[in-house]
Amino acid sequence: MPCWERDTHGMEKGGTASVPESLGRYLAVDESGRGLRATWRPAQGFTNLSLWRGDACIETFHLSTEQMGELIAFLGTSLATACPAQPTLRVVPSHEPSVPRSQALRVVLRRGRDETARLLDAAATLVRPSRRD
Description:
There is one protein chain. The protein is an alpha+beta fold. It is 37% helix and 23% strand. The chain has a four-stranded antiparallel beta sheet with strand order 1-2-3-4. Helix 2 packs across helix 3.
């Protein structure tokens, strides 16, 4: 069965209708066409990771929410350790009018998602096989 069918085929829906089936996908592809795709499926309670060669899925793996948190912590710690200097953070007062809480939350979530995608892309770069493979 093809991977794109396998990662959703035969799964039951989660307990609440308000939880989306999928919150998008992240795809990292190297120069030879090999790729890693991550799909977060909150309604099922896991993240589906799939490995691709060209347009063919060769393997899938499900990470529980807890395992995904551990992976993100591992990647963040590994990248922070590899960083030669610690970033300096400072508070900058905002001169903009106050933003509604829901809009601010969306901005924070988008930034978190973007940073997670950046970290996963950096990690994928580190684990890509060399051209000699």
